[in-house]
Structure formats: structure tokens, C-alpha cells
Write a structure and sequence with these properties.
The protein has ten helices and 13 strands. The chain has helices spanning about 15-35, 45-55, 60-80, 120-140, 160-170, 185-195, 225-235, 270-280, 290-305, 325-345; strands at about 10-15, 80-85, 95-100, 110-115, 115-120, 140-150, 150-160, 205-215, 240-245, 250, 265, 285-290, 315-320. A hairpin with a 2-residue loop joins strand 4 and strand 5 (about 115-120).
């Protein structure tokens, strides 16, 4: 039995049959109470007493309703309400996945439409990457993040917590690693993070994947892109490359361009040939995302490609939740007692 849709505060009942039996007995008791004739007055000597006996005793009926509701709450508590927490599959059954995000100055280009507004390439990529990482971490994968510009650094190590990576992404912005594009350094660092030299005794995982997103061409760094691709192939790391952005001159956002003033136009051509070569050497694929809608589709396609069998089902932890129902029952019994001893006193 699942109950969150009804707003009852629990996810399942351990003994639903007991609830049906208890509610059936409660309904039978209410039916018999309704059919029982009212109590006769022992000495109707006064007309006022006779009139009071003829009128319905609202306080008494309210007390009976409170008692019935309390018994119903006790029936739910006896049935064993529990809340369920579905944890992701245990780490070790999924992929090690490192996402590499270009944070160079060219990612300030205002040619991405997001929510009906023109946004920068980096804002679009950050949102799509965060959603992709959250979904993969929820399925048992370990996800990490490398950000690069003129230099490359690990913004988030491999982790099974998608919220951790989202928090790291929310603090990132274009230019945080310099304005140039060290493509080879970023790829080499990602390979090092996803396939460390020593595994520390940990068994092999289902696979190691790097997804590299950029909108330009390598123009700095110490490791050439082809050398980094060869390193990935030697380590058994599959690399998918994603080229983002339109061709030609695009408007660039600058700190001084608030409100649309001070925009400048620049040309940042994508080095598609290098990205195709990297993906081919490392057993992956190249994807082109020329529009904002295409980028989400690209990551959806990568998500469909990188799948491994999930042998263990998601772990479900159940926590008993009878306390709210016992508190409700106690409160209703207190209300009935107040009505019986205060407002519904019998006429002598």
C-alpha cells in the first residue's frame, strides 16, 4: 500500500490486513451505536428536562465521532505505517564518469536560449551537466567534474552524491580557470581522475568514461590533445567529446555588459577535427550541439549509450512511523473526555 498521494504521512503498511479488520469492526460498532435508542430520562418531572431529552445531544455525538476517529487512528498505527527511503544502488556496480567542462572566456557567448531567455553557453552547459550528473549518481555511478580554461583542475572528485557535484557547479563561472583553452591538459587530468594508478585494492568497475565539452580549440597547455587521447586509450577510458556553440561571430557577455550595454562580437570556431580524433582514438563518439535544445539531446544520447546492468535492486530502508497516529488518537480521546465531562453532562 502506498499512501503519499493521499497525504497520510507514510509510504506503506506492514500489515494492511489488520487495518481492514480494525476498520470493519469500527464500522460495525458505529452502526450498532446509531441503531441503539436514546437513553430514557429516569424522572421526567420537569418540562425543561423532557425538552432536553427530545433534542439531539450534539456534544455527545461529537464525542462519539472523536472516539471513532481515535479508534481509526489506532487501527492505522496497529497496521504498521512505515516511511521508505530508496537509496541508490551500492557504489561499485556502475560507471566511473568524469565530466570535463570548458570554462574559458569563449563560453561567455550569448547564443544559448534557456527558459525563453538568451543565456551564455556556460549557463546552458552547467544546467545540462548538473541534471545529467544528478541522474547518473542516483543510479549508482560515481561522477566527478574537471573544469578547464588556461589551466585544468578538479572541481569535484568522483562521488556518488549528485548534490555535491551540483553545489560545485553552482559556484563555477567562465574565466575561473583563465581565458585560454588547455584542452589536452583537461583531458589528461580527467583520465588521471577516472583511472588512478593505484586502485587501493578495489575491484574493477563496470567502466570508465570521460565526457568532454568545449566550444573552441586548444591554444595552450603542456599536453597535446592527441597525447591525452592516447593516454585515455592506454588506460581503457572511453572518451566522448561534445562541441557546443554556433559558428561565426557571436555576442559575448562581459562584466560591463549588464542590461545589454557594452556587448562585443567575437568569433570562436570549434576545432571539430580534433574532437573527432580524440573520440575516435579513445573509443567514444563526437557529438555536435549547435543549439541549446541539441545539447540536452546530446547528453540524453550519451546517457543511453553508457548503460551497465544493475544487478542489485535499489536499496529500500523502512522506518516505522506509528508515533503521529498514536498522538492523533490520544488527542481525539482527550477531546472526547472533555466533551463527556464538560459539555455533555447527563441531566440528573
Amino acid at each position: 500500500m502506498s499512501a503519499p498521494a493521499f497525504g497520510l504521512g507514510f509510504d506503506a503498511l506492514l500489515h494492511p490486513a489488520w487495518l481492514a479488520v480494525a476498520l470493519g469492526l469500527l464500522a460495525l460498532g458505529l452502526w450498532r451505536a446509531a441503531r441503539r435508542p436514546p437513553d430514557a430520562l429516569p424522572w421526567p418531572a420537569w418540562p425543561e428536562a423532557a425538552d432536553a431529552g427530545a433534542r439531539p445531544d450534539r456534544a455527545r455525538w461529537l464525542g462519539r465521532a472523536a472516539r471513532a476517529a481515535a479508534l481509526a487512528a489506532l487501527a492505522v498505527a496497529i497496521a504498521g505505517p512505515v516511511t521508505e527511503h530508496r537509496a541508490p544502488p551500492p557504489p561499485g556496480q556502475g560507471l566511473d564518469l568524469v565530466l570535463v567542462l570548458d570554462a574559458s572566456d569563449s563560453m561567455r557567448a550569448l547564443d544559448a536560449e534557456l527558459g525563453g531567455e538568451w543565456r551564455t553557453r556556460f549557463e546552458l552547459a552547467r544546467e545540462v551537466v548538473a541534471r545529467f550528473a544528478r541522474e547518473r549518481a542516483a543510479e549508482g555511478d560515481r561522477v566527478g567534474l574537471v573544469v578547464f580554461g588556461e589551466t585544468a583542475f578538479t572541481l569535484c572528485p568522483l562521488a556518488s552524491d549528485g548534490a555535491l557535484l551540483e553545489a560545485a557547479l553552482s559556484r563555477s563561472e567562465p574565466g575561473m580557470a583563465g581565458g585560454a583553452t588547455a584542452l589536452g591538459d583537461a583531458l589528461a587530468l580527467a583520465v588521471k581522475r577516472v583511472a588512478p594508478e593505484a586502485e587501493g585494492g578495489r575491484g574493477p568497475r563496470a567502466g570508465r568514461v570521460v565526457v568532454l565539452l568545449t566550444d573552441g580549440r586548444s591554444n595552450t597547455g603542456t599536453v597535446p590533445p592527441d597525447v591525452a587521447a592516447g593516454l585515455a586509450a592506454a588506460r581503457g577510458v572511453r572518451v566522448h567529446t561534445v562541441g557546443i556553440g554556433a559558428t561565426g561571430e557571436v555576442a559575448m557577455q562581459t562584466p560591463e555588459s549588464a542590461g545589454g550595454r557594452g556587448l562585443r562580437f567575437e568569433r570562436h570556431d570549434l576545432d571539430e577535427a580534433t574532437l573527432v580524433a580524440i573520440a575516435g582514438a579513445a573509443g567514444g563518439r563526437f557529438f555536435a550541439a549547435r543549439s541549446s535544445a541539441a545539447l540536452a539531446a546530446v547528453y540524453a544520447e550519451i546517457d543511453a549509450l553508457e548503460r551497465v546492468p544493475r544487478r542489485p535492486p535499489p536499496r529500500v530502508r523502512r522506518a516505522p512511523r506509528p508515533e503521529p497516529w498514536l498522538a492523533i488518537a490520544g488527542s481525539l480521546l482527550a477531546v472526547e473526555l472533555l466533551l463527556a465531562r464538560g459539555l455533555a453532562r447527563r441531566i440528573p
